[in-house]
Amino acid sequence: MDLSTSLQLIIPELILTATGLVLLLAAAWGGDKPARLFTGIAIAALFASGIALVPTLHDGLMGVETNAFGTLFKADSYAAFAKALIYLAAIGALVVAPAWFDKRGAMRSEYPVLIVFATLGMSIMVSAGDFITLYLGLELNSLAAYVLAAFLRDDRRSAEAGLKYFVLGALASGILLYGMSLLYGFTGSTDFAGVREALNGELSTGALFGLVFVLAGLAFKIAAAPFHMWTPDVYEGAPTPVTTFFATAPKVAAVALLGRVAFDVFGGQVDAWRQIVIFIALLSIVIGALGAIGQENIKRLLAYSSINNVGFILIGVAAATAAGASAMLVYLFIYVAMSLGSFVAVLMLKDSVGNDVENISSMAGMVKEQPLLSWCLFFLMLSLAGIPPLFGFWGKFVVFQAAVEADLVILAALGIAASVIGAFYYLKVCKIIMFDDSAGVVTGKSATSHWVLLLITSAIISPLGYLLTPSLGDLSDKAAEALFLTL
């Protein structure tokens, strides 16, 4: 494949690269005054990158024609589906940021630049066809994310979140890199197809260790138990717009990358990794549910909620079938809508002078002062719990269905039973905001951009979301088919 063809396949990444570099130079010369303008430019670039994905998504492109630079980069419909979700989540994180940071006098030009580079890293991750490409994308995303976590330099919690994320993230990257080196040593290749071919047949002990280390490193990136310890502290300490970003875009990228590595690289050794994924899935569901019960901070509760949801997503991965991969992608779409809406609602929890309200007890009876916000948050919590007829139920349904079809009936049954535990803390929040005596705390006004995004996400997770199931199912099936195509 010639250079011009490869460049055509990476148009979304080229747009993000050019935008990031231009904004970086402009921020160095222009200071923080044009920060809102830079945010608008970043949103436009992400939107243009998303538009460039439409032909790939619509036609379900896959196979040799989607390989760029040899086999280093795969611009297939699976990558395009994940990128579309990543770009939408990044746009959401950019839309909600200016109003929140301006109130604190902390809106700086670096914010959209960091979001663009983090998104570029994630875009490269999900299209990786080689472990070297995977690691480059992962580190580009991680380096930007560490700075974003500590973006409020004068806030002790933000600095602490950035430091914890950096130390534990570096450890996870080291584990992943060591696993990659083991696989290279025992297979003689870093190319996904080459590693898969070398792993056919009996799996050596060294290659098995490499597989385990790679899965452990990726489990950290998706905040799956027992590698979840950083999540509550980072989600609570990071600025809320940054937490909104962390809970959505990087989660999609890491899960999509895990799916590609599991199905593509280790596709011939399903029995070797399936038991690991099942263990991580069930542990994440239980720890996410039990850990959230005693939380008093709404951001920490949502952090445990994200761990819980990752467990359900991994049930689709454990199915190790095209239906399981499709279910995983459907769940990711619904999860992004639910998480984005939930954190936007958290952004809008303010007292009369505009200070953030994060304590759940301070949200008591807020339906009296903020009826529309309360009802939106109420339905978002119920959707996260997977209660029908809200759209969150459909995400759990499709992954359980894929597990049953893959003869993992016990796993599906355990997942359904564990989801009942998780419903408790969601219903607890619903009860506090709707039925408790009013605390009279959440009375502040919110920006128009926050309202627009909250209403859009609330509409998606409502029963209206089921109108999306035909097109969503078609796109996810095409993406899963591309992932399972063995060249």
Structure description:
There is one protein chain. The protein has one domain. It contains 21 helices and two strands. It has helices at 3-9, 11-30, 35-52, 54-59, 77-103, 110-126, 131-149, 156-187, 192-198, 205-221, 231-237, 240-246, 249-265, 270-293, 298-319, 322-347, 371-384, 392-405, 409-435, 448-461, 469-483, and strands at 67-68, 73-74. Strands 1-2 form a two-stranded antiparallel sheet. A hairpin with a 4-residue loop joins strand 1 (67-68) and strand 2 (73-74). The longest helix has 32 residues, at 156-187.
How would you summarize this macromolecular structure in one to three sentences?
Pfam families: Proton_antipo_M. With about 475 residues, the chain is mainly α. It is built from 21 helices and 2 strands.
Write the layout of secondary structure elements.
Elements: H1 3-9, H2 11-30, H3 35-52, H4 54-59, E1 67-68, E2 73-74, H5 77-103, H6 110-126, H7 131-149, H8 156-187, H9 192-198, H10 205-221, H11 231-237, H12 240-246, H13 249-265, H14 270-293, H15 298-319, H16 322-347, H17 371-384, H18 392-405, H19 409-435, H20 448-461, H21 469-483
Antiparallel strand pairs: 1-2
Helix pairs in contact: 2-3, 2-6, 3-5, 3-6, 5-6, 5-12, 5-13, 5-16, 5-21, 6-7, 6-13, 7-8, 8-10, 8-11, 10-13, 10-14, 11-12, 11-15, 12-16, 13-15, 13-16, 14-15, 14-19, 15-16, 15-18, 15-19, 16-17, 16-18, 16-20, 16-21, 17-19, 17-20, 18-19
Enzyme class: translocase
InterPro entries: NADH-Q_OxRdtase_suN/2, ND/Mrp_TM
Subunit structure: NDH-1 is composed of 14 different subunits. Subunits NuoA, H, J, K, L, M, N constitute the membrane sector of the complex.
